[in-house]
Amino acid sequence: MSNYNETILIVEDDPQIRNFIKYTIEKEGFQLFSAANAQNALNIIVTEKIDLIILDLGLPDFDGIEVIRKVREWSETPIIVVSARDQDKEKVLALDTGADDYITKPFSATELLARIRVAIRHLYKKGIKAVQPYFLVGDLKIDFESRIVSVAGTEIHLTPNEYNLLNLLSKNAGKVITTGSILKEIWGMNYGSDTQALRALMAGLRRKVEKTPAKPRYIITEIGVGYRLVDE
What we know:
Elements: E1 7-11, H1 15-26, E2 31-35, H2 38-47, E3 52-55, H3 64-72, E4 79-83, H4 88-97, E5 101-104, H5 109-128, E6 134-137, E7 140-143, E8 148-151, E9 154-156, H6 160-171, E10 176-178, H7 179-187, H8 196-209, E11 219-222, E12 226-229
Helix pairs in contact: 6-8
Subcellular location: Cytoplasm
Organism: Lachnotalea glycerini
Protein name: Stage 0 sporulation protein A homolog
């Protein structure tokens, strides 16, 4: 990828990591701002046109989770968290608070750029969502108007909940959807945290859409966090 015009804000207090991210982004043609603490980051966000935020959680003035919470009060700017915190509960909290993606340190330039590409695609899809009649990735196609799902041109028959689950994942393709969020969307607020039904539902869906369910091509498990439908 090259010749991008989007502007990215890097919020990272570690100079070495900040410079690594800056170098990775600049050579791809992105414009950028950087901040070493949360307050400076918020000042930039409210005064500049920022298309994507790359955010560390362990900031010196206040926690990155608070940055996500404050930004989400008025903006849908994509946020990619990059953090040394590798506990599942930390990832779930960041995603449920409003982050779009989460990368655990250390990470490679290749991985970071792949996540950025996904976030940028989401940025533009938001503006054309209403005119997208179908979702297509690989051999998997979802026709939203007819509610028909096909793999390699062959229609597959899904239960209502299987379709609702696939539909939810496709509308957020490339993003991790937490287990708690899926439970609320599919079964409602009062369903609790019992994941057994979701695992059974997911197993049934994978048997129908995946060539090898044990090694899924489309629906990826983010262990301890949730699920992600690939978008490329």
